[in-house]
Design goal:
The structure is a single chain. The chain is globular. The strands form two sheets. Strands 3-4-5-6-7-8-9-10 form an eight-stranded parallel beta barrel, surrounded by seven helices. Strand 8, helix 8 and strand 9 form a beta-alpha-beta unit. It has 14 helices and ten strands. The N and C termini lie far apart (57 Å). The protein has 352 residues and is α/β, with parallel strands linked by helices. The protein folds into two domains: 256 residues, TIM Barrel; 66 residues, Orthogonal Bundle (Non-ribosomal Peptide Synthetase Peptidyl Carrier Protein, Chain A).
Amino acid sequence: MVSQSQHPGNAARPLRIGNVQLETNLLLAPVANYCDLAFRITCRELGGLGLACTDLLSPQGLLRGTARSLDLAATNDADKPICMQLYGGNPDILAEGAKWAVEHGATIIDINMGCPVDKVTKKDGGSKLLCDPSSTIRLAARIVESVEVPVTAKLRLGWSNGEIVAPDLARALEGVGIQAITIHGRTTEQKFKGEVDLDGIRRVVEAVRSVPVIGNGDVKSAADAARMLEVTGCSGIMIGRGAFSAPWIFREIWGFLQTGSVPPEPTEGEKVDVIRRYLDRMLEYRGEHYAMTHIRRRISWFSKRLGPCKPLKESVRTARDPAAVYAALDEFTAGGLRRFETRPTDSVPQEA
């Protein structure tokens, strides 16, 4: 539960990024393989979400028109405003990718300076950009010059605890026209281990002059959001993993920031409807193979908020087609698939 004393008071301020006015100060993070179009619209439908980001996008893939890149960049009228995040280390290619993204619906362009995954950093993208701030600043300036929409940057504190560059880098990025900074409060070496460093985020907030700083990391509840806003002084919050099992988290946090009270959690039936609509959208936007692959993966996250439901998870994981998934959801709604049946153990003869 969140107490009234934790309410941050004036934190319910809709965020403005350049010339783009958002409805709230809450953002969905660009998490690879999780923040697809279907999930973004599911979160938007539930309320409280100010801006959603695509999966990280390869500018080379966009420019070549590869099927995977085009699928990851897919958007529609219900998915606005939308931030398209690009990764890589070549300024010219990133600039061309940014132009492509704007032509295909991007409201905002974000430069990924925070991904710690090897396959990204080995291509001089993601948090590898933290290792050469001077080049990274020139790269950012090139992208800012190439498009007329706001350009933002998402970074980590540094490569390691001994190489904290985020405050100085954020200030320099602001100087070349970056319109907002999102800071994940960990280093590259930490990846997702340990606790997020709120003091590290606060130092970035203190370093910039006027652009908004968006805090990211370990926000899984309204209480977490309130604490981040209070301790860091950041202007907004970006949520990734905290939304996977509860895509209504944005509604909960925004309601709390406005009133001091967390709105009621969805009922069990409403949660099942969320899963059903998510599957509907995956089928519509990406087809059966994609939908089945992802619903089998995502049911483990969704089930965290459904109470006892191991048989449901198993039914979805082994489902052959969408009809079987819908049938399992219907059975769960009717009261089944809660617990595996236990068989009585064979009786053991007692000694005389």
